[in-house]
Design a protein that fits this description.
mainly alpha, single chain, 0% strand
């Protein structure tokens, strides 16, 4: 379960990073 949450957080960080970049 922890692995899933970690992956979700990573995906969220990527989306936020892309949002900030754009």
């Amino acid at each position: 379960m922890n692995s899933v949450w970690f992956e979700v957080q990573r995906c969220y960080a990527l989306i936020i990073d892309k949002n900030i970049t754009i």
